[in-house]
Every structure is written in C-alpha cells, then in structure tokens.
Amino acid sequence: MSRYNEFVALVIEQLALIGDLRVRAMFSGYGVYLDDRIFAIIVDDRLYFKADPSTRHEFEIKGLMPFTYVSRGKTVTMQYFEAPPEVFEDQEVMHMWARKALSVASRVKKKPKKSNDPFEVQP
C-alpha cells in the first residue's frame, strides 16, 4: 500500500517517463527527486517546480505564485513556483516544465547523500 495520497501518485505517474523518480516525505509535503536532485515539491495537493532567476519570469508571467510558509512570525518565500494548471492536462507540458526545473536543480551544488533514509517514500 502506498504511503502517499492520490495527488502525489498522479504527479509521479505523469512524470514517470522522465526517469527513475524518488519521493521523500518532508515537513508537510513531499520532495520529488531525480538523480538525487530535488526539482519539485508537493504541499497541500499542489505541485511546485524549482525555479531560479533564469526561469522565475516564466512562472510570474503566468501569474503563478512561489511557495511560501510562515516561520517565527515571518513569511519565507522559497524558490519553488506553483505548476501551471495545464501540466495536468498534457503530459508533454508536464515534462517541459519538469525539464526546466531539473535544469535549475542541476545548477545547484549537490548535497552529500544520506544513507538509510527513514523518510523515503516508495512509489
């Protein structure tokens, strides 16, 4: 039996063709990884793709908002933007946005891999 909800399962199914994904529970959501690089997060049944200054404008011109949370009374804005709704209607569009996020993730220095990860979720 899966340890994640239907929305997470849908996202993984839509992204399956881009490679061997790993989903890891984190805080109040999930991180989506390819080759040990996080490129998307899922929080409250919303998909967010990793962005940087080179891709941020593509999200902003579509009116898509970054992921934010409140910590110690202050709003923290992450470098992940909500996926456009059309990614759920067209798998090619999903893959296009995912590849952009993967490109951003590949430019971020890789952190050392943890072994025996108790939070890893198997599809």
Question: What's the gist of this structure?
Answer:
InterPro entries: TfoX-like, TfoX_N. By secondary structure, this protein is an alpha+beta fold. The protein contains 3 helices and 7 strands; from the N terminus they run H-E-E-E-E-H-E-E-H-E.
Number of strands: 7
Average of the residue pLDDT scores = 89
Number of domains: 1
Helix coverage percent of residues? Answer: 25-40%
Order of helices and strands: HEEEEHEEHE
| CATH hierarchy, class | Alpha Beta
Inertia-based shape: globular
The CATH topology is given as Yope Regulator, Chain: A
Task: Provide the spatial order of strands within the biggest beta sheet.
Answer: 5-6-4-3-2-1-7
CATH architecture descriptor name: 2-Layer Sandwich
Characterization of the model:
It contains three helices and seven strands. A seven-stranded antiparallel β-sheet has the order 5-6-4-3-2-1-7. 25% of the residues lie in helices and 33% in strands. The longest helix has 16 residues, at 91-106. With 123 residues, it is of the alpha+beta class. The radius of gyration is 14 Å and the shape is globular. The protein has one domain: Yope Regulator, Chain: A. The protein has helices at 6-15, 56-60, 91-106, and strands at residues 21-26, 29-34, 37-43, 46-50, 66-71, 74-82, 120-121. The protein starts with 5 loop residues before the first helix and ends with a strand. This is DNA transformation protein. InterPro entries: TfoX-like, TfoX_N. Residues 13-104 form the TfoX N-terminal domain. Pfam families: TfoX_N (PF04993).
